[in-house]
Amino acid sequence: MKPPLNPESNQQDLFRASFEQILNPEHPLIRLGERIDWRRFEAAFEGCYAAEIGVPAKATRLMVGLHYLKHAFGESDESLLDRWVENPYWQCFCGFELIQSFSK
């Protein structure tokens, strides 16, 4: 038998908690993500995307962040995505505020 849900509970739902609430702000990837000028990458890659052609673009911070993580941690494309899903610090570094998941 399940315990009754208490709607007045102060306990946060882990999957709705923001990274700001659950991650260590002193973690090296959090600190690095705050120091990078992401707008500079957006400006540099702006001309590489066309709104009329192909699928919608992903966020520049996500793409640059994934490339950095891949090379910094010696990951393949497949292992990078497996680790990214399991690692909230990697997701936060790539610009997300909540836990993300995806299906292959």
List the helices and strands and how they pair.
Elements (H helix, E strand, L loop, with lengths): L18 H4 L5 H8 L2 H8 L14 H13 L4 H10 L1 H6 L11
Keywords, separated by commas or semicolons:
47% helix, single chain, mainly alpha, 104 residues
How would you describe the overall organization of this protein?
The protein is mainly alpha-helical. The protein has a domain at 19-47 and 58-93. It is built from six helices and no strands. The mean pLDDT is 85.
Secondary structure category = mainly alpha
Mean pLDDT score, rounded?
A: 85
Give the overall form: globular
Poorly predicted residue ranges: none
How would you sum up the major sheet? none
The whole-angstrom Rg is 17 Å
Order of H and E elements: HHHHHH
Number of helices: 6
Helix content: 40-55%
Strand content: under 5%
Q: Could you tell me how far the N terminus lies from the C terminus, measured between alpha carbons in angstroms? A: 35 Å
- Based on DSSP secondary structure assignment, what is the total number of beta strands? 0
Brief overview:
With 104 residues, this protein is mainly alpha-helical. The protein is built from six helices and no strands.
